[in-house]
Design brief:
The complex is a heterodimer. Chain A folds into three domains: 83 residues, no CATH class; 167 residues, no CATH class; 67 residues, no CATH class. Chain A contains 17 helices and no strands. The longest helix of chain A is centred in the N-terminal third of the chain and has 29 residues. Chain A is 77% helix and 0% strand. By secondary structure, chain A is mostly helical. By secondary structure, chain B is an all-alpha fold. In chain B, 72% of the residues lie in helices and 0% in strands. In chain B, helix 3 packs antiparallel against helix 4. Classes of the chains: A mainly alpha, B mainly alpha. At the A-B interface, helix 5, helix 6, helix 7, helix 8 and helix 9 of A face helix 1, helix 2, helix 3 and helix 4 of B.
């Protein structure tokens, strides 16, 4: 037992000569002496081993360098390191990287838009032009439906106004997050990029939204939206006709996926959706009033949406408002 | 087949683009302070949901080839979105359901 204790003590004190203590040889006193004072032969052996290892290592490295696949992880690692050492990214690049995923997500929806527009009898370039100038998912679909239905311009303008009125709110909210000294022409450029998703990301920023950041944020979505429309408008024939006929539901799915998740946790939103749907169905099915919703149903959409929102605003106060009123009462 | 080109629908395209842009640019260019009216704020809070719901609900069941596939796809989309699935996943799932129903109808009858 004391021998083992002795050995462990030696390990702890660790003289440099006992770097590789062979475990099996500890019990012999002679071997112990050899560990403490390694012979000249052992030193040369160690040196030879070291040289051989070095050679092997070099050889392996050269082989690795020849095989590009083996080199990839190292290259990636070095690239990552260089990125980390770079100075902080400019606002534009930061926005560009953030907006990348939105741009990708837009492609299938705008693909559907291109498809539907061409099916309705629009020239493919007209569809692309609409996408580029509007950048509004629901508004564009409603708009082409109205144009195809032969609605007058005033009704088209009213429908576009009602369908896109949420952008008004978003723009308004965004004005609170931008520098008050920002010149008007820059504000006008920023206004073009206000969509549901871009606004959501910009609103999540902690500090004020700068002009280059917002510009970067809106670049990828605009490209993705336009590109998706081009693909949908020109490559529509490549899809099987059965799938083409069923693609129209993709837009409505987007709406459902936007409105249903928040209504799970917020009962008021759920009721507002129910009221709006009921009113809209009424304008579709009740015999006398469904005369209003000819020419693509613009007026019925306006009336049911505004009426439902007005009803909800009157009868279901939002939590934020309730808190504010409570705070005011306390202040009094 | 092509009925709407830049010449036949040019006015409508301009109306659409200008209206959409005007909605976005008006608050940006004009407003510099928060609106205080509570009712108007509530109204603006509900508007997106009401607009999207009113656009979706009677029309979604007619958006596929036939009524039956439309109803099935709508139910699939509602269930998937209720379970908080991704936007793209919901769209693909509903389109797949509609295509499946249409295909089964084609095979069966």
């Amino acid at each position: 037992m004391h021998k083992f204790f002795h050995y462990f003590c030696k390990l702890k004190n660790g003289s440099p000569k006992t770097m590789e203590p062979p475990v099996g040889e500890v019990h012999s006193n002679i071997k112990k002496a050899q560990i403490q004072r390694p012979s000249r032969r052992k030193a040369t052996l160690r040196a030879m081993k070291w040289r051989r290892d070095k050679f092997n290592r070099r050889l392996r490295q050269q082989v690795n360098d020849l095989l590009i696949v083996r080199r990839l992880p190292r290259l990636l690692k070095s690239r990552k390191r260089s990125e980390a050492q770079e100075p902080p990214k400019s606002d534009y690049v930061r926005g560009l990287l953030l907006g990348k995923s939105i741009g990708l997500g837009y492609v299938p929806v705008s693909f559907t838009f291109g498809l539907v527009a061409v099916q309705m009898g629009f020239d493919p370039w007209v569809a692309v032009f609409i996408s580029l100038t509007n950048l509004a998912s629901a508004g564009q679909f409603a708009g082409i439906r109205m144009i195809a239905g032969g609605a007058p311009a005033i009704e088209l303008a009213m429908t576009t106004l009602v369908v896109n009125i949420r952008y008004f709110l978003m723009s308004l909210s965004l004005t609170q997050k931008i520098d008050t000294k920002l010149p008007t022409w820059k504000r006008c450029i920023m206004a073009f990029g206000v969509t549901d998703e871009i606004f959501a990301l910009a609103a999540m920023e902690k500090e004020d939204v700068s002009f280059p950041f917002f510009g970067g944020l809106m670049t990828c979505p605009i490209v993705g939206w336009t590109l998706g429309t081009v693909l949908g408008a020109f490559a529509a024939e490549l899809m099987p006709p059965l799938v083409q006929a069923c693609m129209g539901i993709a837009l409505y799915c987007m709406f459902i996926a936007i409105i249903v998740p928040p209504s799970r946790s917020n009962k008021k939103i759920f009721y507002s959706i129910l009221i709006a749907s009921a009113l809209s169905c009424m304008f579709k099915y009740v015999p006398v009033i469904n005369q209003i919703s000819q020419n693509g149903g613009g007026w019925s959409l306006i009336i049911s949406a505004v009426a439902a929102a007005a009803l909800c605003a009157t009868f279901f106060k939002t939590d934020e408002m309730a808190e504010e009123s409570e705070r005011k009462e306390v202040a009094r | 087949m092509i009925q709407f080109t830049f010449t036949t629908a040019g006015l409508m395209l301009a109306v659409m683009a200008l209206t959409t842009y005007a909605i976005r640019v008006t608050p940006m260019a004009i407003f510099h302070r928060k609106l205080e009216n509570r009712w108007f704020k509530d109204f603006m809070f509900y508007i997106p949901f009401c607009v999207l719901a009113a656009m979706t609900f009677p029309d979604v069941i007619y958006s596929t080839k036939s009524l039956s596939s439309g109803i099935v796809a709508t139910v699939v989309a509602l269930i998937m979105s209720w379970r908080k699935r991704d936007l793209l996943t919901v769209a693909i799932g509903a389109v797949a359901a509609a295509v499946l129903v249409e295909y089964l109808k084609m095979v069966a009858f």
